Amino acid sequence: MSVFKSAFYALILFSPSLYAQEVIKDTITSYQLETAKVSGYFTEQPLLTTPGSVSIVGQKAILSQNGATLLPSLNTVPGLRMEERSPGSYRLALRGSLIRSPFGIRNVKIYVDEFPITDAGGNTYLNLIDPASISQIEVLKGPDGSIFGPNSGGVLMIKPNGFQHSPLSKTSLNLAGGSFGFAQQQLSILQQINQKYQFSLDQSFTRSDGYRENSALNKKTIQTAHLWNYHPQASLKVFALYSDLNYQTPGGLTLEQYQENPRMARPATPATPSAKQQKAAIDNKTFFGGISHKINISNKLSNTTTIFGSSSKIENPFISNYEYRDEQNLGYRSYFSYESQDQLNWQLQIGTEGQKGWYDIANYDNKNGVSTDPQAEDKLENWQNFYFVRGKIILAEKLTVEGALGLNQNQIAYRQVYPQTSQQKERISFGTTWMPKFAASYLLTPKLAIRGSISSGFSAPTIAEVRSSDNIINTALKPESGYNKEIGLRWEWMNRRFITDISYYQYKMNNAIIRQLNANAVEYYQNAGKVNQSGIESSIMGYIIKPSSEKLVQALYINSSVTYNHYRFKDYEIGNNNYDDNKLTAVPDWIIVHALNLDFAHQLGLHVQHNYTSKIPLNDANTAFADSYHLVQAKIQWGFKFSTKFMANVYLGVDNLLNEKYSLGNDINAFGNRYYNAAPTRNFFAGLKLSY
């Protein structure tokens, strides 16, 4: 190891000023801690007294590195891990394993404001959204099925540009380029037409040749959000997104191939062609849209009703087949909210959410990237409905108590079209499930709060798990379920310059859904007994140097988080193999992240982020592990004004500063031990942002 690396690791891991940091939050446009508010639970409330485990990622953090990906910013949240197998191919796990999400995002519910973008089948295409179109993300950790529907990991609440109440109109254009053929253009327009109406328009184009063979990305998005306060007691929101996303998939490598040439795509074998020969890729054209209406029936009672829908056309040439998916979704969400702040401060919400999805999935032989003879075709439908009630009360301005109860119904209907045609629909019912939650927070002092919660986790198999790559409808899969117990402490100190958050949780999951491969290297899913998930999440955010325009160093802001995962299999056997007490596949024991923002005079700024991830088990048997790694990213920028209204910002950034060799987005339980998806070596980007 070089002297430079050794010195850098020592500084990062042992410097008290860095290691002492943890989670708080940065706000939409700044890092002012005293404005920390949580709005995901229906009404805005202070972060300090929120009974749940919540983290907030503001726009400044989202754009602190390369604006083409959410990866660096979301990975600052303890308990959340995001991976990138190749440009555009993302996976996300929130308090849980990536074992159910080899190629996407499952078991996490994601909303854009009032609009669920997680479809009826349980899948979320988060990679369709351009990061520059997001103003803030709230991360609600732990099972929250009582008010958001089935999930075990938690909920992401994305705030898009245009819905925040802003008295200012602004336009910005960002142009960027970098290593491995990276190029990006982003246009963002926010217009305040009058006191009643405002809208935003965000458009982007992103391309990359990729670090590896067959890993090119081409992405085009356009998004618009409209807020119309057409009456003093009523408002209307409209959101629409169209994304045309194409990215190549290079496939996993064996350890020998990864060490020899990490840039290669999955090579051919005597039995199978290469990823490049098969033109392995994903092409996803999706439209999502919705309308949300809120009316204040009285000064205490309101109703919010949302309708939404999406349409996705997906092509996926792969090694073993060429898949076409036509996915359509429609849904609604409606709830009444009653708030009383008289002698007793309490509120009550009651509502319902439902979705129906239609999925036409067809597989063909793949001959050099061209679909030929049919293999299988199925039509599936998914219904998901849940009803919820939630109450909250604040006693003596110290004790906050929340209770919620959800009732979930979920079923799938399917009909085979090829190789045999069935006229009759078959049904898979996952039953009716109650999902309770109880949480409380108590202010020990005006700036120190202790909290605790118990909640039910429930996650039905997704469409992609019931009808996986083996083209067989798996009627034996059962939903995951369990109870999560959690305690935590949140502390604001040094006149709110810092906020510290620490939590400990235990989640015992039954019927864990695990990805497996059959003898033909084709994936399928099965239930794997129990998984015991225990973890500690801690974070600190705050100002080492408070903001001041009078000094050369105008501000120093630090955000650090530490995550410890103790996840183990229980009662898990496959054939003669017993995996009891093995580490849960794809989950590292430790993740430590430090982020530093340094502001100088003359609008100079520096952002540095360090991510340490310990070794990761790659299979259920724990016979293969991905090495631990230190990832360092940095960005320096300079802003200057041409006039009172016109501003420019020039920036230069580097990813993987230490030039680590690591795999990000490993293929788990991979056939032929093809686990490794090499991440890029040291690479650079630069750009110019013009704002008016």
From TrEMBL:
Residues 47-154 form the TonB-dependent receptor plug domain. It is found in: Cell outer membrane. It is a multi-pass membrane protein. Keywords: Cell outer membrane, Ion transport, Iron, Iron transport, Membrane, Receptor, Signal, TonB box, Transmembrane, Transmembrane beta strand, Transport. Coiled coil: none annotated. It comes from the Bacteria. InterPro entries: Beta-barrel_TonB (IPR000531), Beta-barrel_TonB_sf (IPR036942), Plug_dom (IPR012910), Plug_dom_sf (IPR037066), TonB-dep_rcpt-like (IPR039426). Pfam families: Plug, TonB_dep_Rec_b-barrel. Residues 230-657 form the TonB-dependent receptor-like beta-barrel domain. Residues 1-20 form the signal peptide. Belongs to the TonB-dependent receptor family. This is TonB-dependent receptor. It comes from Sphingobacterium kitahiroshimense.
